[in-house]
Specification:
Strand content: 25-35%
Subcellular location: Periplasm
CATH superfamily of the largest domain: Trypsin-like serine proteases
CATH class of the largest domain: Mainly Beta
InterPro entries: PDZ, PDZ_sf, Pept_S1C_Do, Peptidase_S1_PA, Peptidase_S1C
Distance between the termini: 129 Å
Protein name: Probable periplasmic serine endoprotease DegP-like
Helix content: 10-25%
EC number: 3.4.21.107
Radius of gyration: 37 Å
Number of helices: 10
Family: Belongs to the peptidase S1C family.
């Protein structure tokens, strides 16, 4: 025992002895030895809330999604077997170069397949002298010119993609998610909806395929998964939600896109967007992007549109659409007011094409189609989509607004001509450009100065007040007024007469039919102040 200088035990010795005694007492009391350890901090671990995973969906649908490689033939300028390259060295061709010329050695080494002794052009990614069944020998060779995405819609090898992906191709290759490459044949395409169908021969193999979703069950805010080939990175999966429905992006009369915020980029075109049940809700076809990359705004063709078009392409290689044969435009609030409609809806007939189903049924310029088979027509796009979805030869009941009242018309639809842009017909007549008019009368309150046209039909617009409503509505000098409130006019006095009658009828606007190089259209102008 330690003692201090007085011979008594030190304080440290006392504390140590008491501690040991306490430990001994604890051992005796419990009957087990006491283990003394240091205390350490534990790693951070948070119990996260459960969130949905897309892994099961991706595992199920990935075998049905393919990358689409599009190839086209590059023709050589000369007949030299230089693998598509041609040069002119001061009048000398490739074969005129000395054998030891660096360029000739280079192209002999790298420009020709060493396994191809006959000098046939090669096809990228394929073996053999002819480059596969889609690349027969001859001038030029098949080279990749585009890439996109697609998916199997049947077990026997039908693939859906975009028309703009395959439109410039001569040969097509479908690359599956396991890297297998299959030559594909173009079955049909539909530029109006930007859809196309390819077919691969699996030699009896049954492919994993997917089904269409029911559009009625797709809601804004639903989760979706996009699978495709962005920038050539096949098998890429992104996720987001349905941001909006019924988007019109100005690509045609059948615009009715789903907007999604899943990352969609160059190469995703033609690829599917799935719901959490693994069904295709849309086909990626366009993005909005100032930079060229994804900014979270992508557009997909809805399943309801694609389903019928794809079925027609698989069956006949083309789509047969109903045809009314009239040029139409939307009904604005001003136009509705000018013709006495209670609300701006329906499709305004600008001009029926001579001999078309609409012309034969008695449709006239200025008619507004308000209903089709008893269902209200929202706008011009709505009418185009509905008519285009019907079979040629179908009889439809139209309700048209004419001369301030509704009346029925029965029309037997024709077949949309191949060269027509949509379910309506363009009026291709050309306006006559006026020479110096004999007389002019200013309709100052309208911002128009008019004169007689050369053919005596309508009035030539010779000047526009840049601060007028007419200028705001896009009316230009050189165009022609053919009618006002559906009454043909050929002089300023006739225009004023129609405007006065409209004022007596309590109208504040009049409907002007304007003819230009681009066709005919209707514009509503205010008539307050006209005498």
């Amino acid at each position: 025992m330690l003692k201090n200088f007085n011979g008594r035990p030190s304080l440290a010795t006392v504390l140590k002895a008491s501690t040991v005694a306490g430990i001994a007492a604890a051992v005796l009391a419990t009957g087990v030895p006491l283990e003394i350890t240091r205390s350490y901090a534990e790693a951070v671990k948070v119990q996260a809330p459960a969130v949905p995973s897309f892994a099961n969906v991706v595992d199920a649908v990935s075998p049905a999604v393919v990358s689409v490689r599009v190839e086209n033939r590059v023709n050589p300028v000369s007949d030299n077997n230089n693998d598509g390259f041609s040069f002119d060295f001061n009048g000398r061709g490739f074969d005129d170069l000395p054998d030891d010329h660096p360029l000739k050695r280079f192209f002999k080494q790298f420009g020709q397949d060493p396994n191809d002794q006959q000098g046939h052009p090669r096809r990228f990614g394929q073996n053999g002298p002819n480059g596969g069944p889609n690349g027969p020998g001859g001038k030029g060779r098949l080279r990749p010119v585009a890439q996109g995405s697609g998916f199997f819609i049947s077990e026997d090898g039908y693939i859906v993609t975009n028309n703009h992906v395959v439109s410039d191709g001569q040969a097509f290759v479908a690359v599956m998610n396991d890297g297998t490459e299959l030559d594909a044949k173009l079955i049909g395409k539909d530029p109006r909806t930007d859809l196309a169908v390819l077919k691969v021969d699996g030699k009896g193999k049954k492919f994993t395929y997917v089904n269409w979703a029911d559009d009625n069950n797709v809601r804004v805010g639903d989760w979706v998964v996009a699978v495709g080939n962005p920038f050539g990175l096949g098998g890429t999966v992104t996720a987001g939600i349905v941001s909006a429905r019924g988007r019109d992006i100005g690509s045609g009369p059948y615009d009715d896109y789903l907007q999604v915020d899943a990352a969609v980029n160059r190469g995703n075109s033609g690829g599917p967007t799935f719901n959490l049940s693994g069904e295709v809700v849309g086909i990626n076809t366009a993005i909005f992007s100032p930079s060229g990359g994804s900014v979270g705004i992508a557009f997909a063709i809805p399943a309801s549109t694609a389903k019928d078009v794809v079925a027609d392409l698989m069956k006949d290689g083309q789509v047969s659409r109903g045809w009314l044969g009239v040029q139409i435009q939307p009904v604005t609030k001003d136009i509705a007011e000018s013709i006495g409609l209670s609300e701006p809806s329906g499709a305004l007939v600008v001009a029926p094409q001579a001999g078309s189903p609409g012309d034969k049924a008695g449709m006239k310029a200025g008619d507004v189609v308000t209903a089709l088979n008893g269902e209200t027509i929202k706008d011009a796009r709505d009418l185009s989509r509905r008519i285009g979805a019907m079979q040629p030869g179908s009889k439809v009941e139209l309700s048209v607004w004419r001369a301030g009242k509704a009346q029925p018309l029965t029309v037997e639809l024709g077949t949309l001509p191949v060269d027509q842009k949509d379910a309506s017909a363009d009026d291709n007549s050309q306006p006559q450009q006026p020479e110096a008019p004999a007389s002019e009368k200013a309709l100052a309150d309208l911002g128009l100065t008019v004169g007689p046209s050369d053919d005596g039909k309508g009035l030539a617009i010779t000047a526009i007040d840049p601060d007028s409503d007419a200028a705001d509505k896009g009316i230009k000098e050189g165009e022609k007024i053919t009618s006002v409130n559906n009454q043909e006019v050929s002089s300023p006095d006739e225009v004023v007469k129609v405007l006065n009658q409209a004022k007596k009828d309590g109208r504040t606007r009049a409907l002007f039919q304007i003819q230009s190089n681009e066709g005919s259209r209707f514009v509503a102008l205010p008539i307050n102040g006209q005498g």
